């Protein structure tokens, strides 16, 4: 039997110590922290595009409240007696009135109850309004970028399974499905086995590509069970659950497909560690035919499996 070629490094690095985390997180991100880069190298737009929606809105609202607080504080320090419709009382009350005025100017609402009278407050109001135009233009652009960004949203089964296959052998398998209504075509899958070995007495990561039963499908309307047959050519041949744990096994997955909504190629990454692999199980079918004759995929069953005796 020909010796299987081991991938030296797929780009994630071979260095390893016993405090190392998994290579790929569940959300597809890598466990990499970049240090030593100044602010000039930071891409704020890219960060705002990629971050979660909750964090994005937290930053946007914090910015809006903060910038208007700055304008309100500046107006309060100058004196609200330069604003018509406001009688100075104390600093807190004056600041609140100035803050409300700033927000009205910033958003171009302008109720008309408060208006600048002095030249300095007219200048501040102009700057406030311009800052509002620019801010909302930028926020609108970022929102559009977030909504229009092509991305794959795939459902990966919670566990990978070592299941009976055919011809008297077992297989390593997991399954995916498209969670969006968009159509993905020309899907490709790559699976890499990451284990911990030794080199010069030091632990290192070793990477071995795994052959798949089917590396490519043309259409992806239902779920796709991705299968690696554990035959005599497989690096997993003869390995058991204890061996997986000893080698600190992690399965690195890259899925690539063409999204016909955006007419662009999209990618998804995922991984399973050795403790996320179930031995002696088989996935339950997640799709069926409805009364109308349509095929129905049930995401509630995507993670469901049943015990099966291994071959």
CATH fold node name of the largest domain: Immunoglobulin-like
Fraction of residues in β-strands:
25-35%
Mean of residue pLDDT values = 87
Could you say which overall geometry the principal axes of the C-alpha atoms support? elongated
CATH level-1 class of the largest domain: Mainly Beta
Helical proportion, percent range = 25-40%
Low-confidence stretches: none
- CA radius of gyration: 29 Å
What letter string, H or E per element, gives the SSE order?
HHEHEHEEEEEEEHEEEEEEE
Largest sheet: 5 strands, mixed
CATH homolog superfamily of the largest domain: G protein-activated inward rectifier potassium channel 1
Q: Structural class per helix/strand content?
A: alpha+beta
The number of helical runs is 5
In total, the number of domains comes to: 2
Protein architecture, described:
- The chain is α+β, with helices and mostly antiparallel strands.
- The chain folds into two domains: 39-148, Helix Hairpins (Orthogonal Bundle); 154-307, Sandwich (Immunoglobulin-like), CATH 2.60.40.
- It has five helices and 16 strands.
- The chain has helices spanning 44-50, 53-78, 91-106, 119-148, 241-246, and strands at residues 83-84, 115-116, 154-156, 160-164, 170-178, 184-199, 202-209, 216-219, 224-230, 250-259, 264-273, 277-279, 281-283, 287-289, 295-297, 305-307.
- Strands 3, 4, 5, 9 and 12 form a five-stranded mixed β-sheet that branches. Strands 6, 7, 8, 10 and 11 form a five-stranded antiparallel β-sheet that branches. Strands 1-2 form a two-stranded antiparallel ribbon.
- A hairpin with a 5-residue loop joins β4 and β5 (170-178).
- α1 (44-50) crosses α4 (119-148), α2 (53-78) packs across α3 (91-106) and α2 (53-78) runs antiparallel to α4.
- The longest helix is centred in the middle third of the chain and has 30 residues, at 119-148.
- It is elongated, with a radius of gyration of 29 Å.
- The chain starts with 43 loop residues before the first helix and ends with a strand.
């Amino acid at each position: 039997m020909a010796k299987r070629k081991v991938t030296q490094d797929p780009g994630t690095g071979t260095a390893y110590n016993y405090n190392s985390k998994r290579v790929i997180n569940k959300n597809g991100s890598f466990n990499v922290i970049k240090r030593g880069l100044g602010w000039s190298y930071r891409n704020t737009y890219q960060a705002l595009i990629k971050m979660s929606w909750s964090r994005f809105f937290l930053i946007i609202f914090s910015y809006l409240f903060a910038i208007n607080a700055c304008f309100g504080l500046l107006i309060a320090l100058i004196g609200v007696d330069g604003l018509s419709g406001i009688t100075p009382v104390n600093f807190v009350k004056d600041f609140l009135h100035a803050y409300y005025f700033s927000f009205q100017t910033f958003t171009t609402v302008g109720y008309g109850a408060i208006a600048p009278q002095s030249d300095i407050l007219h200048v501040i109001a102009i700057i406030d309004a311009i800052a509002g135009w620019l801010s909302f233009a930028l926020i609108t652009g970022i929102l559009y970028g977030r909504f229009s960004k092509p991305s794959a949203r795939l459902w990966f089964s919670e566990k990978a399974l070592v299941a009976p296959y055919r011809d008297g052998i077992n297989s390593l398998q997991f399954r995916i499905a498209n969670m969006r209504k968009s159509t993905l075509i020309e899907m490709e899958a790559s699976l890499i086995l990451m284990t911990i070995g030794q080199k010069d007495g030091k632990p290192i990561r070793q990477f071995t590509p795994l052959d798949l039963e089917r590396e490519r499908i043309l259409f992806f309307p239902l779920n796709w069970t991705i299968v690696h047959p554990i035959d005599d050519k497989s690096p997993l041949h003869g390995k058991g659950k204890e061996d997986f744990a000893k080698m600190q096994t992690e399965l690195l997955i890259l899925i690539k497909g063409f999204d016909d909504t955006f007419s662009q190629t999209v990618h998804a990454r995922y991984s399973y560690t050795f403790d996320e692999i179930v031995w002696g199980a088989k996935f339950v079918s997640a799709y069926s035919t409805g009364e109308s004759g349509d095929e129905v995929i049930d995401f509630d069953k995507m993670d469901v499996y049943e015990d099966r005796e291994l071959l």
